[in-house]
Amino acid sequence: MLSRGTRNAAARASRSNTPKPRSPRPRYLNTAPILSSPSTSKKNQSTWAAATESAHSVLTPPSTPLGSSAASSLDDPLSAINAEIGNLKSSLFRMLGSSNTALDTVAKYYFQADGKHLRPLLVLLISQATNGLGGKGWEQVQLDSQNHNKSMDDSLTSKGGVLNDWNPEVNGEESIGAQIFSNPFIIPNVSSITGSSSTQQSSINPQSPLPLPLPSISPSPFDSLLTQEGEPSILPTQRRLASITEMIHVASLLHDDVIDASPLRRGEPSAPSTFGNKLSILSGDFLLGRASVALARLGSREVVELLATVIANLVEGEVMQLKATSEPEKEPTPKGFEDYMRKTYLKTASLMAKSARAAVILGGCGNEQANKSGIQSEGEWVKDVAYGYGRNLGIAFQLIDDALDFLPPDPSLGKPSLGADLRLGLATAPALFAWEQYPEMGPLILRKFDQPGDVEIAREIVGRSNGLKRTIELASTFAESARELIELLPESNARNALVGLTKKVVERVK
Questions:
Q1: Tens digit of pLDDT for each residue in 192-219?
Q2: Beta bridge partners of 231
Q3: Residue 427 CB contacts under 8 Å (≥ 6 apart), including other chains
Q4: C-alpha distance from residue 248 to each of 143, 165, 339, 374 (Å)
Q5: In Å, how far from its chain's centre is CA 259?
Q6: Among 164, 353, 141, which residue's Cα sits nearest to residue 238?
Q7: CA gap 238, 490 in Å, rounded
Q8: Pairwise CA distance, residues 458 & 220, whole Å
Q9: What are the tens digits of pLDDT across the range 141-168?
Q10: Please, is 203 exposed, middle or buried when counting C-beta atoms within 10 Å of its C-beta (0-12, 13-18, 19+)?
């Protein structure tokens, strides 16, 4: 079951997943993190974007810019994925078009910035690493993807006026008078549908038009298989899933920046500071709505369920975080730390874990559609591998992100550091570990670091404690578990890149 077709010899020869040697750096509080990506000199990057720079250094030679002709040649065993990440912004803009100019602008605002898009990258890598492991299920989804009469943008509702969801990026500009809402909705020729009498029919306005038919859809460049010689194809549904995950993530950023009153995002003015809280919240909701529509059109109930619970998890995690700041634990307890770790999963790792699992399902592993067709589905175990990898990697990533908050600020990090989390009243892993050693951390946590000098005192306590060391060690444990899981898959270029990502995540603080 683990066998894979013979791979292109040239692709094997050109693969290089070993990070370049770097000078060791002590993990002290006065040591700035070194990001191993060559492009970390860029400013206006968030911590997340900086880490995915490292992820891409696993995929692309450092001297080769993403999207260049060299990067998309067959000399790069993952050039198709690199090219798709480069096209992600175009795909997202296509999905987010709105006839409302203000909504269209704010919904696309955070997608204007450069970033390396860790979540869609994870979806595409997992897809390529596992496609083909579903046996007959994989054969079935491949056949389904070859239905050229179906687009990822096709509506499931037969009459477009019912949805009232005109997307100018897909349907062109809405013509004046295409839909009239000042008149009642009336169905003409009811008798032909219900067999009603002529008396009943006379009450129907024969001049009322039928509900608006489905508008024409401009061809999408993202509906085809993503193929590359010697590598498994990535399905259109998996490509669309990659975009959906980024939409859900950015929706959470729009909401978080309102909650945290953040003036900046990736070194630029945040959406709330630019457009106001109301438009930012509504635009985040709009993103979630469009993501939900796109999910429904993927055709898998299990995938819809997974990603819908991600949205609920994000809200649950935010509420847990609010409670942790308003009703903090009075002393260090296992329950308090478990609550912190659960919040970390809900706010960060859930999306990575469930989108990875969803990608595997769309690739035919344990596929419900295959079961309905009477086909014995294979690869159920692969779903658990993908979920476990995403969950462990996501938690490791957030633990390192929390550690970076106690290190000196770096121009390449959009996050300001110097205790940004502390200033929000958040006690993350380094502070919680330090509390176990130094009880004087307790009063600072209880008053949410809100008195003058509290943030500096807390950072000093963490600096002389083992809080950073234990946080990094815990992150390393989760990253190692992610590596062990992903290595259960057959060896491939994509799998090796996923292995490399588990190392790069932790190396951000070295």
A1: 555 555 444 444 444 445 556 677 888 8
A2: 228
A3: 324, 328, 340, 435, 445
A4: 29, 19, 23, 34
A5: 20
A6: 141
A7: 20
A8: 52
A9: 999 888 767 788 988 987 777 888 889 9
A10: exposed
* DSSP type of residue 65: -
User: Count of CB atoms within 10 A of residue 221's CB?
Assistant: 10
Contact 41, 407 (CB under 8 A): no
Q: What is the largest CA-CA distance in the chain?
A: 89
Burial class (CB in 10 A: 0-12, 13-18, 19+), 302: middle
Alpha helices per DSSP H over 131-159: 136-145
Tokens describing residue 204 = 């129907």
d(Cα 409, Cα 35) in Å, to the nearest integer?
13
320 HSE (CA, 13 A, CB side): 21
Tell how far CA 506 is from the center of its chain.
19
Nearest to 421 by CA among 282, 306, 321: 321
Cβ-count burial of 20 within 10 angstroms (0-12 exposed, 13-18 middle, 19+ buried)?
exposed
Instruction: Please give the structure tokens belonging to residue 288.
Output: 């979630």
**295 near 447, Cβ under 8 Å?**
no
Q: Is 228 helix (H, G, I), strand (E, B) or coil?
A: strand
Token digits for 467? 């809080």
Single-letter code of the amino acid located at 126: I
Q: How confident is the model at residue 8 (pLDDT cuts 50, 70, 90)?
A: very low
Residue among 234, 357, 372, 379 nearest 304 (CA): 357
Give the number of residues written for the chain.
510
Instruction: Write the burial class of residue 324 (CB in 10 Å: 0-12 exposed, 13-18 middle, 19+ buried).
Output: buried
d(CA 362, CA 369): 10
Q: Cα separations (Å) of 266 from 40, 275, 310, 395, 493?
A: 13, 16, 24, 21, 31
Topology, domain 37-147+159-174+215-507: Farnesyl Diphosphate Synthase (1.10.600)
Instruction: Using alpha carbons, select from 183, 156, 178, 180 the residue that is nearest to residue 168.
Output: 178
Contact 356, 305 (CB under 8 A): no
Exposure letters 473-508 (e unless 16+ CB within 10 A, then b): ebbbebbebbbebbbebeebbbbbbbbbbbbbbbbb
pLDDT, tens digit, for every residue of 481-503?
A: 999 999 999 999 999 999 999 99
Average pLDDT across the chain, whole number: 81
Strands 264-265 and 226-228, sheet pairing? unpaired
At residue 234, what are phi and psi to the nearest 5 degrees? -105, 130
